[in-house]
Amino acid sequence: MIREYQEADINEVLDIWLSASIKAHCFVDAEYWQSKVSDMRSIYIPASETFVLESNGKIAGFYSLFGNTLAAIFVSPDMQGKGMGTALLDDAKGRRERLQLTVYKDNSPSVRFYEKHGFTSHGEQVDVHTGHSELIMEYHT
């Protein structure tokens, strides 16, 4: 079940974000992600429209929209590969006619995931925080 995020969800959401970020971005030091937990808690999650996916009474994943930007989409590492990312992405696509996102070029599993779901690359940039290249991807209904 996908539902709107509630403030009481914050610790589960942050745990998923941190563990999935470290797993997906092994090319970035784990300390970088750990240093961003506070910003996620106090800035990014509150500023975004966030939805969580529950499975067996537990949050298994979430996504955040900031306007037409898919700012975050993460599934708990132990729940990946079970269609939950697709369910979250489909829900997000159903809420917007157009979505854009950035994804690290070195995160090839995620790049393939987005391509499989209709996103196309529209450029490249360097993330000023990590120095790694990102693809700018878009989806249109």
Automatic annotation (TrEMBL):
Q: Does the keyword Acyltransferase apply?
A: yes
- N-acetyltransferase domain residues: 1-141
Residues of the signal sequence? none
This entry's Enzyme Commission designation comes to 2.3.1.-
Q: What is the main EC category here?
A: transferase
Q: Sorted alphabetically, which PROSITE patterns does this protein's record hold?
A: GNAT
> For this UniProt entry, which segments traverse the membrane?
none
Query: Which sequence ranges form a coiled-coil region, renumbered to this chain?
Result: none
Is the keyword Transferase in the record? yes
What GO annotations for molecular function exist for this entry? acyltransferase activity, transferring groups other than amino-acyl groups
Q: Which InterPro entries match?
A: Acyl_CoA_acyltransferase, GNAT_dom
Keywords attached to this Swiss-Prot or TrEMBL record, sorted alphabetically, are: Acyltransferase, Transferase
Under the heading NCBIfam families, the entry gives: PRK10562.1
Record-given protein name: N-acetyltransferase
What species does this protein belong to? Halomonas binhaiensis
